[in-house]
Amino acid sequence: MFYRVPLRLQEKPLQRQMSFLAQARIAMHKLPPEGDVALETSYHDPQLPKYASFSALYYINQCAVTYDMARRLKKTATMLSVGSGASHMERFLVQGLKVPKENIFVSDIPLVERARNFFGSNSVEFSMNGEWPDFRHKFDYIIFPQSFEIGTGQLHNKGSWTNDLFFDKESPIGALLYKIVASKLWNVGADVDDSEMKEFLHLMEDMSIITGKLHVISEAMIRLKNRGKIIIVGSSFTWEELAYVVMKLEENLGTVGLEFIIPSDTQSSRYVNRTVAYNPLTFIKA
Ligand SMILES: C[S@@+](CC[C@H](N)C(=O)[O-])C[C@H]1O[C@@H](n2cnc3c(N)ncnc32)[C@H](O)[C@@H]1O
Questions:
Q1: What's the CA gap between 61 and 237, in Å, rounded?
Q2: 120: domain range?
């Protein structure tokens, strides 16, 4: 079992160049100025829910879209975006960085007209919580651009109630969660015995949100090439949820790696302590 948990601080000069290019396009197309949040708050379609829409620049500055990724996508690598919305980032890859359109797949529920018009047969409508389509293709990257939390949050669930207990060393549940995470995720701390593991699985499976998150990650994992990456931007896994998902993935699909990238200037403090909110969170298929 191996986990890479490097704190990869950005940034390479080439990443900065991509950021400039994205900024130039924003200026060229007279898009509203933006910081790290939304370009627009709806897709100009009154029928659709009013989701925030993020720019390519946002994902580049988060190092969710990297120079290395763009370089590979320009050749033969492929990407599926789940919850692509208006697909600013995905269209930027094609229009701004000259990635062949056939290497990018977009998907959403419902599919936004602009994305469908641009990506044509590479646009698919499905819910990440349901059955995923058979793409007859494995991807190098599956990205959830600010969609994972919203998508899985729609599940009927009891919430992540273990959240409040994790740091409470006095509580037996808190102590158990901490022990499991330290042993299974951080590779430090004491071994966990079978009865502790059983109790942990039982606790976690009481939360339908975590089985929902596991479903989404598993569906993505199956559609990934070896050494492919699942990139989640805007997740808020708790440590124990992450330990649970990684253990289950390993049980069913083999080794996975984890990577957290902490862009120096965009780390959100909102989730610190309670959740693993380093952006983006990457699962790597071994
Ligand atoms: C905050 S928006 C982000 C959109 C786009 N990726 C961006 O960066 O601008 C969240 C997106 O998640 C999509 N979404 C919500 N629930 C989903 C589900 N169950 N399956 C797939 N996509 C979903 C929404 O339709 C929406 O487009």
A1: 21
A2: 7-160+207-285
Q: Ligand 1 site: residues with CB under 6 angstroms?
A: 51-54, 82-86, 88, 108-109, 127-129, 145-147, 150-151, 154
Cα(247)–Cα(102) distance, integer angstroms: 34
How far lies 72's CA from each of 20, 77, 173, 281, in Å? Answer: 20, 5, 45, 20
CB 278 within 8 A of CB 262: yes
Task: Please say whether the beta carbons of 159 and 98 come within 8 A.
Answer: no
Q: Is residue 192 part of a domain?
A: no
Mean of the pLDDT values across residues 271-277? 45
Shortest CA distance to 245 belongs to which of 199, 185, 191, 202?
Answer: 185
CATH, residue 96: 3.40.50.150
Q: Which atom of ligand 1 is nearest to the CA of 89?
A: 8
- Sign of the Cα torsion 267, 271, 273, 275 reads negative
Q: Is 61 helix (H, G, I), strand (E, B) or coil?
A: helix
Distance CA 253, CA 246 (A): 10
Q: What is the DSSP letter of 270?
A: T
pLDDT at 100 exceeding the cut of 50: yes
pLDDT attached to residue 254? 80
pTM of the shown model: 0.81
Helix (H) or strand (E) holding 222, with range, is: helix 208-222
Supply 172's token pair: 């037996």
Dihedral angle of Cα 149, 269, 56, 281, to the nearest 10 degrees: -50
What is the average per-residue pLDDT within 48-53? 66
